[in-house]
């Protein structure tokens, strides 16, 4: 027994020693990789200033050209004092010898170290002391009144995220230098106090979630490496990766199963807060590959979905080949010019580093195709249609254009005003439709354009009065959603103005090949003046060369007043618009120089801007029964638009409480909520869909409100030549139903022309119509997948004999 106990004890000691050795190896790997990452933080151009910064640094460690305003007097967003840390980090990266950009002469330089040391001393000596300043700066009642000594900001973000990120970066780069005891304590203090608070409220910042919490954890990893504390590193890494998993509750901050990233109560933010989370993942996973700290499969699954979905939201400026986020996906950051290097300027993540971080992501998490296309800067394209049910969002991509459509429901929020950014953004996210052809359409026009004319929206002109206290609103109705088969799709919005309900309507966007057909029905208003028209904004964009054409005729546009025109087609900047139902556009066009001020809509210091802008909108009939339908044809020639007007590729098909579009072998239908009965039907000519030349009809009956895509396809399987197949894709916009049913009744087969003639002869001879009926039942997804699309297949064999249906494999 004694021998066994001795052996057991020795084995335990050996295992412990082995684990300790593994920890030491993994910590050394993380440290080496992180220092290499952090040394690349400075803009390469900054290293050219190292000598100047050393020479111009004052004895107290400051620089005369840095804005050191703090406390209540400091700017809340993009706090200028961060430049102090940017210089210390640049000096530390040069001193470390790790930077591949810095002049090697600064490696272990005494001059550089003295500048680093003085810079650190200044901050640590002037650090704030009251704990209340962490999240409640400027609040006297809570212990941090204006005038409190120390370096702090009224924005919690400065103390909780910004400065700890910068200080932990500088300190880790300088860890192996001769830090004084006070400097060492200061390096720990700035990061430790925010990390220790992670499960509590950050004052005005509240309890942190999603991107904000992983920013704190990112700094905590640097803290653990600085102090060689494996417990901190392991805890911070695990928690950060646990945040990078799916969020399934509606409006919950984080990554959703459709790849949407939501923050701040259901705002689509893939291009800002989501981008921050992605960058942290790139760093953490890139550093942890091959160590026990690497991401597990739950994180890999979510990040794979997230990365693939991000690609859908990115467009390319075809002149510069610069990639950008769709403006629907960056929230309030639309209010910054590109030169401010905010979310509107760039995708702001390194694709090469992303590729390194996910290099061992095997099937089903592999994202190689996405990375390959992103590396091409738009030359290799993603084509198709994608619906994002968690964010009421749809993207339609074709070789020559991208269209992005954002709607509003009870499960989403339109936009927000934070730190003075986006005070006029009320209409954002409420049916927006941004169209990207060359990628410059909306670049740097936001300070100067008319914020009442957000592209795609249907509104009462100049209602409501735009103001900073009227920006952020959750939707009022739940029948809002998307259906997509990956190639085509539809987006539907049962809309009521979220501020005062002064306008409501039902609107659908049918994405059919190279166009989107838009239908607006059941338009109602209240408490509006008679002279305020109801309008749909066709576009509001940077001026394009070539002029505007209505019904093929060039329109002279005044630079100082609106131009009115009536016509069935409008062409401008390569994009075409066509009205339907013998109801021509009642157009208001405008083109000319417009002046605005970036500093009035954000914290940008860019100031006044004058840019040439074009806008076009058409009036909409107020009626419970009338439908206003039009199509948008991006990247179309004037000649092709004229051909569409003569022989449309698609056409609206509508019924009571039903909107739809048909053509090119596709039928898309939405059965709206309300009305006398949920069991409503729509009869469509097969010729209109493209399933027959001139005979036959399809009756579509829904057992409940919903949205459907029906596409006709031919199969060529051995022994089944001539078999026809319908693929029916359905979705529940309310995300509440468990099942849906749809009935299809054909009066003739959508088959070959010869078969149609034969059936016609048989019908005439027997006096009996040839029919086939199908009743499809859809079991709907739940949880985080609620609202996603489900598909059934209908096989039509031997004309109409022997019909059957099966789930799509």
UniProtKB/TrEMBL annotation:
GO terms for cellular component: extracellular region. Residues 154-309 form the Polysaccharide lyase 8 N-terminal alpha-helical domain. GO terms for molecular function: carbohydrate binding; carbon-oxygen lyase activity, acting on polysaccharides. It comes from the Eukaryota. Residues 385-637 form the Polysaccharide lyase family 8 central domain. Keywords: Lyase, Signal. Residues 1-21 form the signal peptide. InterPro entries: Chondroitin_lyas, Gal_mutarotase_sf_dom, GH-type_carb-bd, Lyase_8, Lyase_8-like_C, Lyase_8_alpha_N, Lyase_8_central_dom. It holds the Pfam family Lyase_8_N. GO terms for biological process: carbohydrate metabolic process. Belongs to the polysaccharide lyase 8 family. This is Polysaccharide lyase family 8 protein. It comes from Beauveria bassiana (strain ARSEF 2860). The lineage of its organism: Eukaryota, Fungi, Dikarya, Ascomycota, Pezizomycotina.
